[in-house]
């Protein structure tokens, strides 16, 4: 049974040049930019038993301070990603980048990507310039994506004040986990998840700390609020989660106990996760005790991907 990788990244030379020009020589505190090519990605997929990968641009996204430049860069990387998808529909899918916090630009790019390019969904960062996803200004975008029943892949990025928080350490180590938690807590407490139920939200890295903190968030919602509305754990159980990072031996079993794994998806995080680490992660998935329903984790995540993304997951 081959995997479907919903958390896979690409970069282009012009995208990296634009990011470096904006000051992102060490994006999110990482040592530098990864090398990537379609050929190298396909070789890794073949060696790890990955049938299809849904490609997206990772943090820091496409908006570096100028709305017009962000719109142009989003269009450029989306047309490149969609061309890869069109050229190898048996192996590649595509989540289109949106230039938030420019909501009008994001609406236009979502329409182009989903309506014309045939992208499998869209990707946004957990915050855009410090503005989290439950902010009222984002409502027109969520309304349109809900109308389309779109998949929204939420990728973590550096939080506001990251330099002071991390003491020079790479932000993906801890802050990406916590920013995913912040973003989906904000979506739940703002009512966004319940107001737009047709959006298929994908929480990366196993949802960060959400499985551990869902009950605590619900405690504060009920103890210090009016307690009305859908309980937070119930809202979070409706999300899709991927395995990028270190899913075993501890994270996925915790997710299974608290929020369930009927929407768990495989994610490699290649090319930002180096090839040896991807191989080790796949080995940990294959070696983990099975989920207990007669399937392997490969079978479970691939079946889930087929439900989420009919075209890509069906390969």
TrEMBL record:
Broad EC category: lyase
Source species: Pseudonocardia endophytica
Domain Amidohydrolase-related: 4-309
InterPro entries according to UniProt: ACMSD, Amidohydro-rel, Metal_Hydrolase
Gene3D superfamilies in UniProt: Metal-dependent hydrolases
GO biological process terms on file: secondary metabolic process
Listed EC numbers: 4.1.1.52
Domain of life: Bacteria
GO CC entries: cytosol
Name of the molecule in the record: 6-methylsalicylate decarboxylase
Keyword ATP-binding: no
Reaction(s) the record says it catalyses: 6-methylsalicylate + H(+) = 3-methylphenol + CO2
SUPFAM superfamilies tied to this protein: Metallo-dependent hydrolases
Recorded GO MF terms: 6-methylsalicylate decarboxylase activity; hydrolase activity; metal ion binding
